Amino acid sequence: MEKKIAKDLLSIQAVFFRPEEPFTWASGIKSPVYCDNRLTLTSTQVRRDVEEGLAHLIKENYPEAEVLMGTSTAGIAHAAITAHLLNLPMGYVRSGAKDHGRQNQIEGRLEKGQKVVVVEDLISTGGSVIEVVNVLREAGADVLGVVSIFTYGMKKGLERLREADVKNISLTNFDVIAEVAAEEGYIKADDIRRLIAFRNNPSDESWIGR
Fold first, then answer.
1. Quick one: which of 6, 20, 127, 185 could link to 180 by a disulfide (CB 3.0–4.6 Å)?
2. The pLDDT value given to residue 205
3. Contact between 202 and 155 (Cβ < 8 Å)
4. How far is it, in rounded angstroms, from Cα 155 to Cα 142?
């Protein structure tokens, strides 16, 4: 499944490698990879593969799940479609409470003690998904863990998830996508070393021009 999803994401440029001409993140860090998993929603075949894959991960790793909660905004559609496949209720968590109405941060019905799985599209440093998990825990949910489409596997992200006691299962990951990208001719085989150097330490730009 990891390679199949990797091929899917590369084919629609949801993950796009450009080691010779790096992208610049908002933080100023130079990156050889661009990710936009929202593109999976506009490809019917890739969308089917992703949602069926997420449903499979949930059934296999969190069989006791009672409700899915998407992250705002990228995880909402994936949570909705996957919940439909699994015949489960769903909702989503806002990045902050509304300033009107009931001032909800959690949208959708959530009962205390319910077993929840969070649906996320992409995990890098882990900060945003941990915030969602904390909001749900504070509301009394029993958060079983997270499913995501893609994870970088960055050291900072892995450490954060571990410290917050948050389990994540992804459909594919940075290492697999880099390997498939080389196999499929999107990048050169010797680019993999540079990509992994970036993944291991994004703030160290010594990989550029190697």
1. 6
2. 87
3. no
4. 26
